[in-house]
Amino acid sequence: MATAQAERAAPGLLDAVNRQVPAESVAVFRIAFGVLVTIASVRFLARGWVDTLYLEPANHLTYAGFSWVQPLPAPFMHLVLVGLAAAGAAIALGWHTRLAAGAFAVGFAYIELIDAALYLNHYWFITLAAFLLAVLPVNRFWSLDSRSGRVEASPTVPVGAVWALRAQLAIVYLCAGIAKLNPDWILSAEPMATWLADRTHTPLVGSLLVQPGVAHALSWAGAVFDCTIVLWLSWRRTRPWAYAAVVAFHTATAMLFQIGMFPWVMILTTPVFFEPDWPTRLVGRRVRPPVRSTTGSAAPSLHRATVVGLLLLAVLEVVLPLRHLVIPGDVRWNEGGYYGSWRVMLTEKGGSARFRVTDPASGETWEVDPQLVLTDWQAAQAAVRPDLLLATAHLVAEHYEQRVEVRADAWMSMNGSEAVRVVDPELDLTTVTRTSGPWWVEDPPDTH
User: Fold this and answer.
1) Mind listing the pLDDT tens digit for each residue in 68-79?
2) Exposed, middle or buried, 162 (CB in 10 Å: 0-12/13-18/19+)?
3) 303 pairs with which residues across the strands?
4) Distance CA 317, CA 320 (A)
5) Do β-strands 349-358 and 365-368 pair in parallel, antiparallel, or remain unpaired?
6) What is the chain's percent helix, strand, coil content, to nearest 5?
7) pTM score, two decimals?
8) What is the pLDDT of residues 383-441, one digit of tens each?
9) Where are the beta strands (DSSP E) in 82-180?
10) What angle (nearest 5°) sits at the alpha carbon of residue 342, between those of residues 439 and 224?
11) C-alpha distances in angstroms, 197 versus 182, 213, 381, 444?
12) 196 by DSSP, 3-state: which?
């Protein structure tokens, strides 16, 4: 009976998501995304990061189950970034849009999976947004695809396409806001206070950043912003003011914290919350045919399978940030359940690690640094992320021809806390896998 009810409900849902709305907003999202990822890819090449991050390291700290993902040799790794830049340009122009977006999503996921030490939440967002552009009908308006006749031009898109893009942004904001509701952020204003103390050289406002109460005010403002901005963006009366807050918030974070392209991505994609025809309203003239209330033959639609897939993706994105609840300990400390959880800029960690290697056959023991198998930037991440510390221990073991035992003398601090041990110094880490269950021994001491 439940199946029959679902079947009867499905047509109603399909009708709702396929209601036609102006296509301008979705087209601007596509263009902005394409331009930004093209700039980011060119920037990556220009700064030599392909070499320093992918080709120079002798080893990479791979994700669990993805050790088979390795960088291509030069010059092919460089060509991957060239391909990403070209795909981004094609997305912006609307040229073979779905193919370009799909290729970008696959290529970007590939470089993202090479080294877990490079993980950033906004990389995950870029991957998901590219996937959405590959499956949604975003190429029917203001695109070379529609101008050339490759696809049938349409001034409208299904409202479900707008909802999907809004939902992706909403999940990022809401999860980031909820994650900020912890004692360090709310009571101690950490790590905000630590960050601001290091930015007193900032022109004009540097001396104000360390004044009493500023760190708390900014911490609370950040939490309120992330937790409520979707509500204000969704309400027509507050939408302009909410978007002004988006611009101010992300511009400030870009200036203070230098976190790459992410602030600009959020600023330029968030306008999808405005009315779907906001671009033509903004310029005060019409550049499209009138939108009829009924679906014409040229109007794109979302198929049942696409709608189900989008709903499943939304559920996955909501569940992933919650998986830390079944992992013992504080996720901010042990980072169990960290990946894909939108826990944006929540901690400031410091750490150190050395490994004690023992040859069980001879009983000989010696100490090595993580730099035996890692570059400095990889070692810095391994010292503050337990899963990468474990991965490094296995790389150290693989470095030697004979079987060895590897133990860690690893200490870590978070948000101004005293450094404590991360792992039992007598535990042979070669006997532990990432699926072995909790193996770390300490949660962070109180910082408030």
Assistant:
1) 999 999 999 999
2) buried
3) none
4) 5
5) antiparallel
6) 55, 10, 35
7) 0.90
8) 999 999 999 999 999 999 899 999 999 999 999 889 999 999 999 999 998 877 788 87
9) 156-158
10) 120
11) 21, 13, 22, 22
12) helix
